[in-house]
Structure formats: structure tokens, C-alpha cells
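Service request form, structural biology core

Requester: graduate student, group of Dr. S.
Request type: structure prediction, single chain
Budget code: on file
Notes: please return the result as C-alpha cells.

Sequence provided:
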Amino acid sequence: MAYSLITVEQSKSPISEAFRTLRTNVQFTSVDSETKKIMITSAGPREGKSSTVANLAVSIAQTGKTVLVIDADLRNPTQHKLFGLANVQGLSVALVQDQEYRNYVRETSVSGLLVLTGGPIPPNPAELVGSKRMKRLIEEASEQFDIVLIDTPPIVAVTDAAILAQEVDGVILVLASGEVNKDYALRAKEQLDKVGAKILGAVLNKADLKTSEYYYYYYYHGSDDPKKKHKRQKAR
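Core staff response, request fulfilled:
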């Protein structure tokens, strides 16, 4: 599999512009409350969540903000491949040894963007991400960086993402157009709703939008659902 950062290699491409739109939409969610800790997950595997995390991180860092990417997909860590970093040590080591996480953070070629790689794959990933050490790590990181983006395993397959969704300010769900089953996507949303996660919106990945040059990624804000608006109006 080829790994690339389109926002670095082709900063003027339609896809990079789509990531800037995604960045802007995420920033708009911070109007009423601070959104610093953002988890990104998917319904199933190979939907592009990790590349979404990385490219969104680059796009945010390009505005001058400090960004930390935490690779919490301890079952299949990918961020080190995207950024060309070593993964001998990382999050799993920091949690197991209860060490200062900054010792394992690595700089990237993008100014202001740092990455905490996943590290060696542990035998108990769900236990590690659900630990008090992980919760403390996320809180400390949010105090030291403008934005913290957390890459997690698919939410339907394992419990890791549902656990971490309770520790962040918002969640973005990545879905692969034409690949993800509708029922599977609904199950992903239900899993997030069950743990009280704030869903910021969804990214429709791998979508070839014939009617626009802006293809591949499409973002919508959850509160813009017309059915939800109708329900709120009726409630009043």
C-alpha cells in the first residue's frame, strides 16, 4: 500500500482544498464550546480514517496551530508510515511503562505538527486505551497543543474507539462511499450514541463526485440534518 500526504505533496489540489473545508467546518463546531480533542474513527477497516487524520492534521498545522496526532489504533498503527517515522517506541510503551508521553512524541516535516506513534502492538490494546494513564495523557496533551487528533480502530469491530469517544470533545466518522454497508454505518453511529459521543460530522471518503471537481471527501455537520431541525422545531 502506498502512503502519502496529499496536503503536503499537492497542496493546491482539489483534495487538499476539501481538507481545508473540513478544517473550517471543524473550527465552526467550536463556536459554543471548545473543541480541542477530536477522535477520528470509521465503521470498518480500509475506509481511509488514518489518512484523513494525517491530512486534516497537516491542514490545521498550516494555519499556525500546534497539532498532536495520537495513533491510538494499537491493533494496526499507521501514522508512522504516513509521516515516515520510526515506530520502535510510542503510545503503547508510554502507557505500559507509565512514562511521560512527550518522551515519545516525534516531530514531522510540517511545522507545528507532532506525532505520537502507536508503538509495538500490545496484547491488550482495549485495556491500555481505557486506562487512567491514557485519560491523563489526553488531558495533558490538550493543555500543551492547540488541537489533538486521535486515530482509533474502527468502532464496530472492537471497543477501543467507543472507550476513547468518552474522553474527547468530538468525533468524526469516516465512511467509504460505495463500500460501507448502510446497516454497518448505522451501527457505527449507534455505538457512538450509546457512549454519549458528540458526533461533529462525517467524512464520505473515496467518493467520485461527477458533478464537481471537489471529489474524494465530503463533510457535513451533524446538526445540519433537516430531520433533526424539524424535530427541534416541533419540540418548541
